Amino acid sequence: MFRFGDGRVCRDYPIEVLFCEPCYTGHQRFQIPKHELFPSSYHYRSRFTADVLKGMSGLVDSCEEKFGSLAGKTVVDIGSNDGSLLDCFRGKGAKTIGVEPTAASRDPEEKGHISYNGFLSEELAFTRASEGPEPAITALSSHTPIESHHIFCRRYEDN
Fold first, then answer.
1. For residue 107, what are the domain limits?
2. pLDDT for residue 4
3. What SS3 class is residue 134?
4. What is the pLDDT of residue 131?
5. Are 99 and 117 within 8 A, CB to CB?
6. Is the pLDDT reported for residue 19 higher than 60?
């Protein structure tokens, strides 16, 4: 955020959304520099937007319909923000892991979720994620930039 009348000029970026059939993931073809898009001081928190929380609850319900009981399954939320989606999954008995590059990563940790502060990376997907059980569900709940959107999927294809 900046003050009204600050004089800064916003940069324009091209937009083209691509869809990965194997991962069932939508992603931007042109990536905005991740530290510019999500600085540590990023101020938005999901918990303050009722429609977002309603959508998250609906996502969790649809996952339960598709996959059966979520109790004991592990959910990884890439771009977990304040952990609101993790809260919904935990409410259904799931084990929860958040990956969040901003200071918001402290919020889910304070609520008892496993939370990694950083952007998704090979190191995180292959090393830290391998410390826990294989996730049954991966939830991408935000516009978090993932330079190579296949790295998380690949970690589990290789096993």
1. 17-157
2. 82
3. coil
4. 56
5. no
6. yes
Decide if 10 is inside a domain: no
| Residue ranges of E strands in the chain | 17-20, 25-28, 74-78, 95-100, 114-117, 137-140
The helix (run of H) or strand (run of E) holding residue 61 is: helix 50-67
Residue 8 lies in a domain: no
Strands 74-78 and 137-140, by their bridges, are parallel
CA atoms of 23 and 138, how far apart (whole Å): 10
pLDDT confidence of residue 49 = 93
Question: What long-range pairs does 32-41 form, CB within 8 A, spacing at least 24?
Answer: 32/145, 34/101, 34/119, 34/144, 34/145, 34/147, 37/143, 37/145, 38/101, 38/102, 38/119, 38/144, 38/145, 39/102, 40/101, 40/102, 40/103, 41/102, 41/103
Residue 88 has pLDDT above 90, yes or no: yes
The predicted model scores a pTM of: 0.75
Within a domain: 137: yes
Structure tokens at 77: 């939320």
Q: Provide the number of structural domains found in the chain.
A: 1
Reported as a single tens digit per residue, the pLDDT across 58-79 is 999 999 999 899 999 988 888 8
